[in-house]
Amino acid sequence: MKLLIMSLITPPGISIFLCLLALYFFGYKRKLSAYLLLAAIVFGWVFSTSAMGRLLATGLIAHTPTQPTYERLRRMDLDMIIVLTRGNTLTGSGEWIPSADTYQRVAQSFEIQDKVSSRVPVLISGGKTYGHRYPSEAAVAKNYFTRSRAQVTPVLIEETSLNTKESALEVSRILKENVAKDVLLVTDELHMLRSLAAYRARGINPIAYPVYVLQRGEMGLADYLPSWRGVTLNAKVLREIYGIAGYVLSGDMRLADVFDDGVVPVIVK
Predict the structure, then answer these.
(1) Which range marks the domain in which residue 95 is found?
(2) Residue 32: pLDDT over 70
């Protein structure tokens, strides 16, 4: 049901809805039908371009801290590195592997661990989003990486949460159990603002380490033309915007949690 609602309130769904309305009014209100069809085409075009996706993403990353340097992280004496997953992929052989987004995030967390301190444990957070019969995202990511690297330090997994809000709740409990206060949060830059807000709402103010996924540099003609890359980018950005709005309206976080500077010391309740 949630997926259906999200599909209807994102640009492809809205464009399809406008087309259906145009078809409905075609028989007796031709002018209105033409306007609806034109709106569907324009709306679908604009929100299928990388240019619009990058424009919308600006609002998210403008309030996201930049990556701290490894030297700065070494001086902070971190207690834990938290990394948030985003999906698994089922291969043709029936094996579950991390999705591209999950792989990028977890790989970055282990690189940080190697560069900063091998004693800092990595906590992978991600539950059984595909159902109880299937492995959790955290377990899949851990198994995938432990096969390809000699892991000396402990790798913890949190495999109960199904979304960002639940991740913050479950991770706060784990941090308290491990007396971890100075923590690093790793996720992609588009997801970082919502993640930080969810964690701040639980009394945790982690150091943000956004994984850069957004294309930089000048835009060319291709960025203003509809493309699958544009569709997926707009969908990701809108998902984050709707997610933040939903959490604020439901009372799960405050606007102050969203736009916090990140300079307040870490507090684990």
Answers:
(1) 68-212
(2) yes
